[in-house]
Amino acid sequence: MWAEKYRPKTLDGMVDQKEIVERLRSFVKSRNVSHCIFAGPPGTGKTTAALCLARDLYGDAYRGHIMELNASDERGINVVRETVKTFARVRSIGEIPFKIMVLDESDNMTSDAQQALRRTMERYTETCRFILIANYSGKIIEPIQSRCAPFRFTYLPRKDHDQHLRLIAEKENLNLLDDGLDAIFEVCGGDLRRAINTLQAAASLNRPIDAKVIYSIAGRAHPADVRKMIETAMGGNFLEARKQLRDMIQKYGVAGSDIIRQIHTEIFRSTVPEPWKLKLADIAGEIDYRLVEGADEEVQLSALLARLVEAGYELRETR
Q: Model confidence over 250-261: pLDDT tens digits?
């Protein structure tokens, strides 16, 4: 996997997150680490930052001083009482007197497990420091949050995102076109891990990587096709818009909920007056709710197009 292959080994290799990297460097410099919570969206470097911190702190033998538990591992109260506690109570051998326990996706831990973890963190601070990684830090109980230094990760800016992907494309001898790069950012929205995996999937086709390739790989309709369908519906041609919808679903294999999200996005990019954008967004939201509740996908998408046709008629009458 390229996401692992191109994962930074040290804090100096981290992409963006400059303020966070500076704070972690201060830990390395002082040879001391507090309990931490790394919170933020997926693919922004939380786990990578924890591993880079450990490598910079302990050197190449860092694996002997760190334990990483992921969501795929059992992390109920018994694991906290046994596995985590056993690791935390043993002092590290070497210059650094403590070890590091990384609990990935800790916001999925049960409340009982978190309460047991709170006590373990309190008792074994001298021999073990905890790094809790979460998408939603609000799901971690307050007693743990108050014991940890918070680090807020954000999605990568477009400049850093593109620069890193171009570097990978150069090393892998890929023909990554500008519209392909635009499509990757459109699909992944700053999630660098997902962007790298999407690039790797596109590279397997042995073709120039353009927007068409990216959207077909990601199972997303091309925004231009979605935009054309909306314009056709609001122009009053319901049957043609429905045909375009079916063609998109067959061509890209897109799920109904994904189509609605893309329609929602394109509504706000359109040139219709602001009050009408609100009405169209409300329509898309209602249809999305119906799909979530289990309504038939084709019927609801046809209903959405019908509502767009009606909105088009009303909009022309007001002008």
A: 877 788 888 898
